[in-house]
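Severity: low
Component: inverse-folding endpoint
Summary: output formatting inconsistent between runs
Steps to reproduce: submit the following structure tokens with default settings.
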């Protein structure tokens, strides 16, 4: 079943008598548990037409580099092979997606697309809807509860969104039945060979100074493996050990969610069926916290700017902007993990090498950037730059919300102190008190190296 709340017409054109139904895949880069693909197949079967899937591969995605594009191409290769097994051609072209899909749709009866929440994703879909001569239907497939169904406004905290999601989520927590296309195509229009990633990266001309990671690979098949490993080995400890950086009890699914290689609905249903009591803690992160980030990006167009912060946080940070900093680092020093703090350096090294850091350390990492930057505005820009450049899930609603949280977003005022004002503070002593944080730093050094070393 595809709930009608997931489906939205983006223009008012009527379907035409043409050769195929077009699915413009941009966010939901998978063939399983993909409501947009399922809806395209339903429409095509009703019209006795085949489906063609299109992906526009732009070299100009903000902040993206070889690390992101390699993971993306790995996922697209898996999608291509899966679609071809079902008689659906997959067309990938290096071009602006909004321009390319309009061209592809010239011979389409209608077009279906998935939903993205960031500014560039919304702009692409609006441009395509405006310039396309056939219907463009958007189907929301990368949240459990559609964003506008969950709430009609920007929510203040998780506490205000949680009851709204609880009221709706059971209705949406139902499996999506996989569809089969009735009219198969053996071949389609010419397409880029996405499996030759080195050649594609050369053609794209992307920034290769941030290399691909070697500990994780993109694609829906890999996402399923990580999910099953998490449920089998880690989920039962998630509620008690997830915040401990010295232990690895995280799912590592965030890059797959970012690229749409796995559905949050699929994850939620598998975790719920596990029977582990810790599933509730994980579902809080997957549904409430993640969909709070979607709510933020959807309703606050300044989501990637310092001015997106709540008024109380802006006020208190500006009141303390001139406070003396014991340590002050330029962006380059932060980027190269050259601070006096070995724990912070370890987190930054993990980000540099693996494209991911432990979630608890990500909070500490952001708080220290505030403390060591010349101003809160410069700190915000530096944190967002480092996250988007090096994290596999950079330029993601979760990342924007995570950075903003360090500055007070989705939080409350705390005891006032220097530099932070009433924004929540974290320090190294807290890490040492709660965890074997030295073990974490040693493990990162063994796996990722020490880089430029600590600044003493």
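Observed output (run 2 of 3):
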């Amino acid at each position: 079943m595809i709930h009608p709340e997931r489906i939205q017409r983006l223009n008012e054109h009527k379907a035409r008598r043409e050769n195929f139904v077009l699915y413009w895949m941009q966010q939901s880069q998978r063939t399983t548990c993909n409501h947009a693909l399922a809806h395209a197949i339903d429409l095509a079967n009703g019209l006795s037409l085949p489906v063609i899937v299109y992906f526009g591969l732009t070299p100009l995605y903000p902040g993206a580099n070889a690390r992101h594009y390699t993971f993306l191409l790995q996922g697209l290769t898996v999608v291509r092979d899966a679609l071809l097994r079902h008689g659906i051609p997959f067309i990938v072209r290096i071009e602006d997606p909004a321009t390319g899909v309009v061209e592809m749709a010239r011979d389409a009866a209608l077009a279906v697309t998935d939903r993205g929440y960031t500014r560039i994703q919304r702009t692409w879909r609006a441009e395509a809807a405006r310039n396309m001569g056939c219907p463009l239907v958007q189907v929301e497939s990368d949240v459990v509860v559609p964003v506008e169904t969950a709430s009609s406004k920007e929510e203040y905290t998780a506490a205000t969104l949680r009851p709204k999601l609880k009221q709706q989520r059971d209705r949406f927590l139902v499996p999506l039945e996989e569809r089969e296309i009735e009219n198969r195509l053996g071949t389609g229009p010419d397409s880029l060979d996405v499996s030759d990633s080195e050649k594609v990266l050369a053609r794209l001309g992307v920034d290769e100074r941030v290399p691909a990671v070697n500990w994780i690979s993109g694609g829906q098949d890999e996402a399923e493996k990580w999910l099953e490993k998490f449920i089998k080995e880690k989920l039962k400890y998630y509620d008690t050990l997830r915040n401990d950086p010295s232990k690895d009890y995280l799912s590592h699914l965030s890059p797959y969610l970012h690229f749409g290689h796995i559905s949050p609905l699929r994850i939620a249903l598998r975790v719920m069926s596990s029977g582990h009591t810790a599933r509730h803690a994980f579902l809080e992160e997957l549904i409430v916290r993640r969909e709070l980030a979607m709510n933020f990006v959807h309703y606050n167009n300044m989501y990637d700017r310092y001015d997106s912060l709540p008024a109380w946080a802006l006020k208190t940070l500006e009141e303390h902007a001139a406070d003396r900093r014991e340590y002050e680092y330029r962006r380059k020093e932060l980027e190269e993990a050259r601070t006096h703090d070995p724990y912070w350096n370890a987190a930054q090294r993990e980000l540099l090498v693996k494209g991911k850091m432990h979630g608890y350390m990500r909070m500490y990492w952001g708080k220290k950037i505030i403390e060591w930057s010349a101003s809160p505005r410069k700190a915000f820009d530096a944190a967002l730059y480092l996250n988007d450049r090096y994290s596999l899930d950079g330029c993601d609603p979760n990342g924007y919300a995570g950075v903003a949280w360090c500055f007070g977003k989705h939080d409350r005022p705390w005891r006032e102190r220097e530099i932070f004002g009433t924004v929540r503070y974290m320090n190294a002593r807290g890490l040492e008190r709660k965890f074997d944080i030295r073990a974490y730093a040693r493990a990162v050094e063994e796996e990722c190296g020490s880089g430029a070393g600590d600044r003493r």
